[in-house]
Amino acid sequence: MTPALASIIIAAILITDGAQILMDETREGIKVLWERGFGQLYTETIVFGAYSVTEPGLIQAVLLANTPQLLLSFLYLMYNSLFTGMVMGQEWNQFRSTIGRKYLRVTYPQGEQRETYWLQLPYRYALPLMACSAFIHWSTSQSIFFVQLKTDNSSSAVVGYSVLTTMISLGFGGLLLLVVFLFGFRRYQNDMPTVGNC
Fold it and tell me: Which end of the chain is more exposed for a tag (fewer CB within 10 A), N or C?
């Protein structure tokens, strides 16, 4: 959970700084955040700027803008692994029950055995998890983004962020943390000894 908490803290810092600057300059309150919309660059919300598009400055800007996407991909794999362990533990626990017992899940089923899941998880877990991942990747791409500014004589590479979209991403990320925390409170129905997996 450390990477998730670190990304939430970074997003909270960006929101605080950006919102404070916008409200100090415009004096219009929270309304200005909505008016500025998603993925729009303003001088108050530039995180990094390389004043000439040389290769090092351009690469730094692109890497900075896309680092959150790498972190989100890692978090998706972590969530997938966590839910896989929970679901597998639940299935293992059901072997102890005589009511509603299901047959063994194997790679190559024979007889009444069941096949493994195509996406490693049941669809009722895998599809919402993929949809949440797609949404948070999109909202993060609108939260912090790379822009190449061109004028008559020069061009510059900058990384900006949108306060409103960062707030949406932060709220949705917090909701996902809460969901996985609440899933951890589910109890097994039987007293089957738990086992490790590989």
Answer: C
